Amino acid sequence: MTIEQKWEDMTPQEKREKRFERWLAPPDVKFPTPEAEKAYKQRVQRFIDVIKLKEPDRVPVFLPTGFFPIFYAGTTLRTVMYDYQELRRVWLKYLRDFDMDTYSGPGEIFPGFVFEKLGYKLFKWPGHGLAPNSQFYQFVEDERMKPEDYDTLIKDPSNFMMKKFMPKVLGALEPLQALPRLTALISVPMNYITGLSRQDVQAVFETLVEVGKDLEKWLKVVEDCEKERIALGIPHIMSGGAEAPFDILGDKLRGTKGILTDMFRRPDKLQEAMERLIPISLEAGIEAANKSGVPLSAFALHKGNDTFMSQKQFETFYWPSLRKILMGLIAEGLVPLLFAEGSYVNRLDVITDLPKGTAIWWFEHMDMARAKEIVGSKACIAGNIPASIIRTGTPRDVKAHCRKLIEIAGKGGGYILAGGAGIDKSDPDNLRAIMEAAKEYGVYRK
């Protein structure tokens, strides 16, 4: 490969190596000390090795961060959602007090004022639909797209999102339903612009300006934590953006009842809609990875597990469209990181249908010996320390379980020690025990 070679002329393997190089030596990052840079590169190389199914210096770790930093710092979810300086204090404390191979930052904590001003309806949160002292979010599932709206979505997804979906999940944007299609700008621009004369539409944009100012304050806190994790030599491990088409429809648009009935009553329309969403989801994943510089594209797979649908339904409705997105990401040199929520025991033979060494499968509930046997020769696997052990066990319990996982799944490399789910409250020493186990039992070479 020559320096002059264009991106579009590279093979997927060449693109991936270029992305790995950028991940190892990010051009926009200046490390404050040589020690921080060395630690950063050592941690990144550890993940690159396991992706390639090699033995790194030791087993790398995904700490099950979740909301743990909030409770470790002695505060509440509601507090950090609204007090951004408290959010900053909480995450800096977590960063400085714990050893870790990768970083999960405060970007996972939604800004409360932004949600309020937008009238956000996809989640309930403390003080908004949940008790003020609640320590979690709650996703609100609803039928936000009627069966007759499939054609609208398929014909013009952007118009559907602007006029149908967004006004239903962001109450402040409801007046935008009155605006014509954006394609009206093609013929007579005034057809669209005159809609801006409406006072309720003007109020939407005034609200968006307020939201932007509040987001600026929140992002400043996220950036402050970014500077600290760089100073500590800790890398980001994943970018987001892409989703399984079945989950997009089943989670946010049709809801569980709707998507289940669609598999029987309108399977062709469901398939057509998922095909329409493939390039949209793929593009979102590529853009997020390009922006972050991290070549791992993370998915949370919601409705594909063993308990939600039959094996035939998985192979018919869930996997084909998801696989097309995964192959598209792989073609761009990206590494899909798939968090398989629930049980995927029955899916193991199917999900190996990807090129060798191009993906990470992170399991929640899984027989890791079986996963190692079936998937481990084709893809890196991660998991699956139970949240129950981390939450209620002793450091000794946690360490013993981690040792067992390392001995089973870590043979020959290609394994990441990780929680089966994020946690909230726990003995801080239980998280430290995870890192201790990796350093004590997961060393491949001195």
Low-confidence stretches: none
The fold-level CATH name of the domain at 13-77 and 89-109 and 223-441 is TIM Barrel
CATH class of the domain at 13-77 and 89-109 and 223-441: Alpha Beta
CATH architecture annotation name of the domain at 13-77 and 89-109 and 223-441: Alpha-Beta Barrel
The proportion of residues forming helix, as a percent range, comes to 40-55%
Mean pLDDT: 93
The tally of strands reads: 9
Instruction: Give the strand line-up of the largest sheet.
Output: 1-9-8-7-6-5
Radius of gyration: 23 Å
Helix and strand composition category:
alpha/beta
**Basic shape:** globular
Sheet with most strands = 6 strands, parallel
The rounded distance between the terminal residues' Cα atoms is: 33 Å
Order of helices and strands: HHEHHHHEEEHHHHHHHHEHEHEHEHHEH
Q: State the oligomer.
A: single chain
Detailed description of the structure:
The radius of gyration is 23 Å and the shape is globular. The protein is α/β, with parallel strands linked by helices and 446 residues long. The model has no long low-confidence stretch (mean pLDDT 93). The protein has a domain at 13-77 and 89-109 and 223-441: TIM Barrel (Alpha-Beta Barrel). Helix 5 (84-97) runs parallel beside helix 11 and helix 14 (267-292) runs parallel beside helix 15 (311-331). Strands 1-9-8-7-6-5 form a 6-stranded parallel beta sheet. The protein has 20 helices and 9 strands.
